[in-house]
């Protein structure tokens, strides 16, 4: 039984922004079980589920007990990214990545952090993709992780790379060719890997940073389509 089938005590949504738009959700149940969807940011996207530690659930409960409702949408030019947290006590809506030191701001930051970090443990992956770049930057690999197949539509996939120097200056960037294995609709069984060759003439060394991005559509069982972006690096890093 997933978190959505138990009593939900906290839910988090992040949506909007430039394409691919954020489309994230996290539901946490009274017993600590969670259901998470990640679509943008980092090397893993897809569906995740598991249970928070007792300490983690207790800390979250304390934050929930002091957070009042807030309505502070983003300002400035659109498209805006909005974060929403709902609990029995409060409804919080703020512009994304706000740094408020109020109880409501602390609760939003905690839910944001959970959405980012709960993808790290392999046992949490239900139907997800993981992007990895080889240490020598000769290839990247898109792998299906989790206990269920992952459906993707790569017909309109976008694959890019950017090589940065020792001081994070951009050296070269471009599209990745030779990746036809990604560019179709397909079911990826758990453990399936698509290898993506990277340009052979990259002047890469461990003191530089190579970033690879893959944009692809994740297909849900109900026909819903989510645009996802994975990002992974090799080398020095930031």
Explained architecture:
- With 238 residues, the chain is mainly beta.
- The chain folds into two domains: 3-117, 2-Layer Sandwich (Mago nashi protein), CATH 3.30.1560; 129-235, Sandwich (Immunoglobulin-like).
- Helix content is 12%, strand content 48%.
- The chain is built from two helices and 15 strands.
- The protein has helices spanning 54-66, 103-117; strands at residues 8-16, 22-29, 33-38, 44-51, 70-72, 81-87, 91-95, 125-133, 139-145, 150-164, 170-175, 185-188, 193-197, 209-219, 225-235.
- The chain has a ten-stranded mixed sheet, with helices on one face. Strands 10, 11, 12, 14 and 15 form a five-stranded antiparallel sheet that branches.
- Helix 1 packs antiparallel against helix 2.
- The protein starts with 7 loop residues before the first strand and ends with a strand.
- The model has no long low-confidence stretch (mean pLDDT 92).
Secondary-structure map:
Layout: E1 8-16, E2 22-29, E3 33-38, E4 44-51, H1 54-66, E5 70-72, E6 81-87, E7 91-95, H2 103-117, E8 125-133, E9 139-145, E10 150-164, E11 170-175, E12 185-188, E13 193-197, E14 209-219, E15 225-235
Helix pairs in contact: 1-2
Helix content: 10-25%
The fraction of residues assigned to DSSP E strands is over 45%
Tell me the total number of β-strands: 15
- Using only C-alpha atoms, the radius of gyration works out to 19 Å
Q: For the terminal residues, how far apart are their CA atoms?
A: 40 Å
**Weakly predicted, low-confidence segments:** none
How many helical stretches?
A: 2
CATH architecture label of the largest domain: 2-Layer Sandwich
Structural class: mainly beta
Number of domains: 2
């Amino acid at each position: 039984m997933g978190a959505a089938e138990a009593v939900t005590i906290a839910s988090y949504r992040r949506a909007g922004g430039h394409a691919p738009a954020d489309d994230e959700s996290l539901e946490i149940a009274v017993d600590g079980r969670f259901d998470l969807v990640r679509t943008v940011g980092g090397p893993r996207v897809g569906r995740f589920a598991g249970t928070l530690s007792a300490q983690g659930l207790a800390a979250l409960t304390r934050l929930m007990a002091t957070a009042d409702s807030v309505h502070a949408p983003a300002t400035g030019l659109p498209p805006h990214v909005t974060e929403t947290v709902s609990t029995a006590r409060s409804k919080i809506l703020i512009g994304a990545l706000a740094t408020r030191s109020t109880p409501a701001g602390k609760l939003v930051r905690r839910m944001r952090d959970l959405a980012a970090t709960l993808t790290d443990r392999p046992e949490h992956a239900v139907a997800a993709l993981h992007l990895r770049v080889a240490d020598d930057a000769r290839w990247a690999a898109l792998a299906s992780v989790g206990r269920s197949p992952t459906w993707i539509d790569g017909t309109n996939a976008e694959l890019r790379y950017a090589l940065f120097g020792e001081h994070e200056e951009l050296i070269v960037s471009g599209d990745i060719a030779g990746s036809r294995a990604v560019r179709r609709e397909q079911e990826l069984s758990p453990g399936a890997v698509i290898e993506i060759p990277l340009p052979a003439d990259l002047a890469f060394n461990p003191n530089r940073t190579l970033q690879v991005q893959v944009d692809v559509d994740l297909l849900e069982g109900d026909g819903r389509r989510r645009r996802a972006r994975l990002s992974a690096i090799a080398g020095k890093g930031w």
